[in-house]
Design brief:
16% strand, Rossmann fold, 38% helix, alpha/beta
Length: 285
């Protein structure tokens, strides 16, 4: 797509493109001014292109070329979801290289943060700056319990006819409930056409199995991770415990840590007004 004349500035308006890599056809969206190092967004469990919060994407795309994409078997990307985080990282590498980039910044959330760490373990030269939100290290305490928490909250959301992310990502106090409704509206109500394909149940279950393996796996040596890294989370993350953000901060030399009070897994979305400029400034350094 030619964005040289007038770049798309809003994620809601970003067109969907495709590229073939590693035997799969990946769907992706891009926005912001082209040129320079792009910021590639790595999305969370069971999420497609439509699940990114435009409040964060648009803030970063103001000055940077932003690319979001669906992993293999997710949304409209072809193939089957791989059963390990490392294979997902191989696909991410192939996707980035197929677009012609040798250096990128990465913004990741949750499962996306696991994939980003696995990518850097194999290809440290590819990533210049890294943002890890709502995530944790390989072998991190209780990551292997994500499936249990997820299924319980899906049941709760089904019984109350609400979006599962309202339970999984946000605290259930008044402020958390308000933030949850606003977030769901921003991510499901804004874009009305050219929507991505939904996540398939089998692919979702495979993602959960891969997360369990990651949680029980041999930790990466994060002392080798030399990229400037920004780590952010809420202080009550039930999916990927908040202590794991502190663990990442201790193990990644020179990293910066932001923990938002009275918020959960989606703390960066609840506190998007504070977080979006922090993330944009960090990535623009």
């Amino acid at each position: 797509m030619n964005m040289q004349d007038k770049p798309v500035t809003s994620y809601v308006d970003a067109p969907t493109s495709t590229v073939t890599a590693n035997g799969a056809t990946f769907v992706y969206r891009e926005l912001g001014p082209q040129g320079g190092i792009p910021v590639v967004f790595f999305v969370h469990l069971a999420a497609t292109l439509d699940y990114w919060d435009p409040r964060i994407v648009d803030a970063i795309a103001k000055d940077r070329h932003v690319i979001t994409f669906d992993q293999r078997g997710v949304g409209a990307t072809t193939g089957d979801v791989p059963d390990s985080i490392e294979l997902m990282a191989d696909d991410a590498y192939a996707f980035i290289k197929a677009l012609g980039f040798d250096l990128v910044d990465v913004f990741s959330f949750s499962l996306g943060g696991f994939i980003a760490q696995a990518l850097i373990a194999e290809h440290p030269e590819l990533v210049r700056r890294l943002v890890l939100t709502g995530t944790g290290p390989k072998g991190g305490k209780d990551i292997d319990k994500v499936a249990g928490v997820t299924y319980r909250d899906i049941l709760r959301s089904t019984l109350t006819r609400s979006d599962a992310r309202e339970f999984l990502f946000f605290a259930r106090d008044d402020e958390g409930k308000r933030a949850a409704k606003a977030y769901v509206e921003r991510t499901t109500g804004a874009r009305t056409e050219a929507l991505d394909a939904p996540m398939k149940l089998k692919g979702f279950q495979t993602q959960l199995k891969a997360i369990k393996r990651y949680g029980r796996g041999k930790p990466h040596d994060l002392s080798k991770l030399t990229q400037p890294t920004l780590i952010a989370n809420g202080d009550h993350d039930r999916m990927v415990p908040s202590v794991l953000s502190e663990d990442l901060h201790r193990r990644i030399k020179g990293s910066e840590l932001v923990i938002y009070p009275d918020s959960g897994h989606g703390g960066v979305f609840q506190h998007h007004r504070e977080f979006a400029p922090v993330a944009a400034e960090f990535l623009n350094r």
